[in-house]
Amino acid sequence: MPDLLLELFSEEIPARMQAKAAEDLRKMVTDKLVAEGLVYEGAKAFVTPRRLALTVHGIPARQPDLKQERKGPKMGAPDAAVQGFLKATGLKSLDEAKIQRDPKGDFYIALIERPGRPAIDVIAEIIPLIIRTFPWPKQMRWGERSAKNGALTWVRPLHSIIATFGPETEEPEIVKFDVAGIEAGQTTHGHRFMAPAAIEVRRFDDYVSKLEAAKVVLDPERRKNIILEDAKELAFAQGFELVEDQVLLDEVAGLVEWPVVLMGSFDEEFLSIPGEVIRATIRNNQKCFVVRDPKTGKLANKFILTANVEASDGGKAIVAGNERVIRARLSDAKFFYESDLKNWKNKSPEDLLKKFDQIVFHEKLGTQAERIARITRLAVELAPLVKADPAKVEAAAKLAKADLLTEVVGEFPEVQGLMGKYYALAQGEDASVAAAIEDHYKPQGPADRVPTDSVAIAVALADKLDILTGFWSIDEKPTGSKDPYALRRAALGVIRLMLENRIELKLNSVLTSAYEKYIEVWAGTLRFGAEKTKRFDGGGFQSSTSERISDETEADPDIRYRVVTKAWASGKAWAMTPGELTMTPFAKRYEVVRDLLPFFADRLKVQLRDQGARHDLVDAVFALGGQDDLLMVVRRVEALGKFLDSDDGKNLLAGTKRASNILTIEEKKDKRKFDGAPDASLYKLDEEKTLASAIAQVKTDASAAVAKEDFASAMTAMAKLRPAVDAFFDKVKVNDDVAAVRENRLKLLNEIREATRAVADFSKIQD
């Protein structure tokens, strides 16, 4: 069957747009083909800095013939409806239509038969439409036609189009169409500098080989492999090791059509700068890779660049030009770094953080200074819970954001935290404090490292809990795919910190504490005598009038001020009246925590599902209520999963569900619940007595095991219930003719359901 070759040759395609553009082209063309009845065998798109290309093979030579019945109006319908039907179906009169008998009335039916068209004609209609509607993020118009209505827009000026169609065994045809005066043909051009002459191509294999001869590597994956392997080899030949960078590799491969790897160097004096800053400088400014000494792991004063040309001088001029730029950029970085060190030297945290008083974190959540104060208070509270030194935690929390004010982080935001660590070490801070400054942002993604030092854990948890409670309190929650404040990432970070470090924390308690820090910090920032002061009402900082009380009262840390208000509507987080001298907590705090717990449950399901766990088991555990210790939830889910994989677990689940189903039916029938303890005097059969005894024992044993957090033993206790449940359903008629006995047996079934709830809600578990 015939193949399609399509190339759109333009001035330039920015590297950041290339991958999506190739996928968009493949999808748009193939979707249109399928919609037209042209089901293909395979398709692949390619992209270089100057061209988008697509090959689609196995396309039928023509569309299938169309046979379709179309229902029309009822007999006797108004003439307007009849005429519309005839026009839509192409019938000359109703004599050409069939009549379909129907209880609701007789309808006209048109039998539409249309012969399929040649595929090349269909493609000639599809491609111009795709070119004109291509979803470039940014587009431009050019030339004389740009001022006219309907002028073609493209990412950069479009120069030529290749469109050929035909089987491998024959000479392909050119797909005849034009877009804004650019006619489709079979001519392209090679490398801009090394082989700019026109090239005539026929089909895809011919196209690829001729481009290769004209110094163009079409496949971006092949360009990446060339760059990576040549860079590794060049570094190894000089006794170094390439520092791999996949994001940079993707970008560089999008900048060249014919990759040529070269090595340059910079002055050794710049190695006094932290390696991460050197790498960021060289990477961001010149798109170059760095290398390191494999023995020491430290960076060498070398870099690797990727040129787009085989230079006649072997690349000496290209290397020299990059060295000049990198030398200038590293000089700037060295100046920034040394200036930052001087600014940090011998300064207290209070001195370092003064500027944060004027920097707003969020208009409804206060300044960065207030955020740091909240994180510090919360981290110190968390310290004993994670077995961290409170003094070190306090020091780390106060300095955690300080490097945001530095020159280096201002230039390279990606090294925030890391630079704080370097500056803290230079100032003589404890190693744990410095490490916590770097690690408190972590983990920032599923593949990111999780801090293990207790000081870092405390500060990292405080940082993320503060963000979550703050934005939840002002109703800035994630919606659909939108999460501008990365709250899902923050919640997953809290989960990973707790699970991977085996930390037992009650989320309800720590979220409440995090929320209350907003109020505590606000209270500490009130100023007596000011005409206006700030209050936090769960919906942001607003203005209210404050009144100076007296010097004596002002000095009292417990009775500081009186806030004069009018009438505060219900639902505020905190309320003050003219006669009150203390703050009163209100319901908003509980709403925030209540809404956040399900959010954590959902994130935990995502985390466990990614690890292969069943989401229904997470639901079964959370359904018990009060499950806010995530580590305990996971341990319970793991034990439940192992139990349900056993024969005892499978059979007990089946028995429990059978009991639940019977109860649901009978409760609906009787319009009542069968709760409460069964009456032992009404047991008529041994199987009833045995089941009642087993339930009592299981409740005792399973509850005791759960209290000790020994979930494996709880599951073992549950397994003892299985034979009694099996025997009950085998020998006992639940719906006995005697009403009192029936009710008692239904209560016994409810006891099965309640007994299993010691470990999970079995009704949430899927079969």
Automatic annotation (TrEMBL):
Family: Belongs to the class-II aminoacyl-tRNA synthetase family.
Residues annotated as domain DALR anticodon binding: 657-754
InterPro entries: DALR_anticod-bd, Gly-tRNA-synth_bsu, Gly-tRNA-synth_heterodimer
Subunit structure of this chain's protein: Tetramer of two alpha and two beta subunits.
Coiled coil: none
EC number: 6.1.1.14
UniProt name for this protein: Glycine--tRNA ligase beta subunit
Subcellular location: Cytoplasm
Provenance organism: Afipia massiliensis
One GO CC annotation: cytosol
Major localization class: cytoplasm
Top-level EC class as recorded in UniProt: ligase
Reaction equation(s) it catalyzes: tRNA(Gly) + glycine + ATP = glycyl-tRNA(Gly) + AMP + diphosphate
GO BP: any one term: arginyl-tRNA aminoacylation
Keyword vocabulary terms for this entry: Aminoacyl-tRNA synthetase, ATP-binding, Cytoplasm, Ligase, Nucleotide-binding, Protein biosynthesis
HAMAP family with a match to the protein in the record: Gly_tRNA_synth_beta (MF_00255)
GO molecular function: arginine-tRNA ligase activity; ATP binding; glycine-tRNA ligase activity
Pfam family, one: DALR_1
